From TrEMBL:
It comes from the Eukaryota. Pfam families: 7tm_4. Keywords: Cell membrane, G-protein coupled receptor, Membrane, Olfaction, Receptor, Sensory transduction, Transducer, Transmembrane, Transmembrane helix. GO terms for cellular component: plasma membrane. This is Olfactory receptor. The chain crosses the membrane at residues 23-45, 57-75, 95-117, 137-155, 194-222, 234-258, 270-289. It comes from Loxodonta africana.
Amino acid sequence: QNYSTVTRFILLGLADQADLKQLLFAIFLLIYSTTLVGNLGMIDLIRTSSPLHTPMYFLLSVLSFIDICNSSVFTPRLLTSFLLTDQSISFAGCVVQMALMIFHGTVECLLLVIMAYDRFVAICHPLLYHTIMSKRLCIQLVVLTYAVGVFNSAVQTANAFSLPFCGPNIIDHYFCDIRPVLQLACSDTTTTNIIMVFFTSLTSVPTISVILVSYGYILVTICRMRSLEAQRRAFSTCASHLTALSLFYGSVFLVYLQPNPESASAYTKILSVFYTIVIPMLNPLVYSLRNKDVKAAVRVRVLNLSRKVF
């Protein structure tokens, strides 16, 4: 049969009404600005405050950098869609967006695992903490997460776009996610879906297992502590990370483990907005509101800046 190869995709976005688009533009512009200010501020605070020069805060600064990059993949394109009538994205642009989405998602998953291991060492082996979590090991682990992210992104993106696309070209989403794109393929996607599930499981199952085992040991260690103050401090150091884990994995699983995602596109869009745009804004708040070290560093930083100004 004669067919034409798709060169552009149409992203339906989040809304059609002009008034709603203006409101959403203002909301997402505020979210994106808060994300940039919060995460850049966290990176600057960790870099300039000597009490925060520890493995935990080094990993947190890497997480802030990933959140900035992840949000920048989606939000500027979404803001543009609220202002322009042209909702199309080129085939190459769609490939790049999907590749970056998978890369940043994979890196964040692995980084949260490393942070869970960091808390495990800090609570279960406090005397060996700085020996085990050396600066060299932290850098090696971060480089490894980036390498795995590149590999997973390359395989998954190549797997998705190896299929022929001959129309239709309308994606009922605000970015080029894997499932909506595969629904537009002109050939059978069974093998492609199996490969996608395999590599997704290869990333998610080991990471969740390590997190569960780490916090299992942490819980046992905390319960064995005789001092209530020591227990409170241990729980406090884990609370922020557990909150970040719950927000990220909870929203991702609700999006990608639906039995019939085609019947809940609006629901999927809302959850996707949450883990791609909202969570990068929340992470600096989660790690600062319950953290005395960060609060103290913020006060010192503000005081030093005010002295320079006046």
